[in-house]
Amino acid sequence: MHPSSNELINAFVKKCIKLEIAEIEGKGRGLRCLEKCDSGQLLLEIPLVKVICEESITEYRKKNKSFASIAESEEWDVMPSRKQVLFILCHLNGSNEKESEWNLYLSTLPSYIDTPVQWPESDIQGLQGTSLFMPVLAKQNFLREEWEELRTRYGNLWPGKITLSDWIHADALYNSRCLERPSGNTVLSPVIDLCNHSNSANSRWDFTSDAIQVYAQKTISVGDEITFNYGSSKGAGEFLFSYGFIPQSIGDGTIDVVKILIPKDPNDPLDVVKRSCCKRPPMIEFASDPTGLWWHAPFLYFSILNIQDFTFFHLEQNEYGDIEPQWEFEGQRTTIEELPKLILKSSLKDLYFLRVFCLVEQLAEAALKHNLESDQYISSRKGVATNLLLRERNLFTKILPYLKGFIEDYAKSEVVSNYLATQDAEQ
Fold it and tell me: Where is the SET domain (predicted)?
């Protein structure tokens, strides 16, 4: 049974307007305003000591020997904040500490979140053809390996009681409800995390040195729900992956985004070395918004450069003994993120852009082909998976003519013609 609005608000909120925790149609529980509020007005404030964050978990470890037994202080201090939060969620769910305010908070959290990682195998198969199928399988494998490591490392302590489903559910709670601090670390905040998403959100949250505050971004009337925008640049796939739903207005005049992994290039002898320059696997982002169609993939500009296009490109051993590439483009050292700006200034920019757009076209065509082919062997899907499939199909269908237009223009460039003529003469 959920605690009453007053019980939860009194336990965690320091300041607030008149509000209530209510059932919101199609969304579950949310926060509803019970008085008119002006833009810029403070709606509620929760002290950081009341939220689940690194500092409060550290204090909890000092008071709870069972929880502190999970790791020595030195190990705990270097543990990622995400894993710390997952541990506290699993610990509280399995403990009998009814007096803890955090247990009161946990009683408000859903017992199931409809994220694809938690779907049965048959429903996950229904994601084939979308940008989510492989990421969901990878996330499942990551969580399984993470859980197996816990069992091996802490088998004689309380984590041995954590099941794989417990760990996956804790991860889903974390991903769907966490708020990011300016430092990059995250927190779980009672009450505030009840605010649902809206593309036309009326509120925003912010951190002070000792609290989280929620402010009105526009006038809020009595009875209105208090809403946040979970991410104006997120596409349908990201929403489904992290939150378990697709906002209705995604792709209908706002923004639609598809992010896919850039596959390895077996024809480029430098591909492995180039990828070692990336902090994470390179992605390409296709998007449609009110300004038009666009794509973003800085790595592709790096990928299309041949060895002779660099001023120099070689491997060096750094001070830690690791081998890493050192390179310059047209006499300048730069980063992958800044490389497109340098290429824009190059006398051969039309040639480089032609290469890039041809590669982007290949990726979009392959994604659309895979999307269309999935209809042949998937007899049934969850409605939300079908929604995602069709949205992504629509985006790729729109973006291919856009790409072809650029390719045709660059192919007519005098720079490209002269370069090809030079190459033919050398052969």
Answer: 17-231
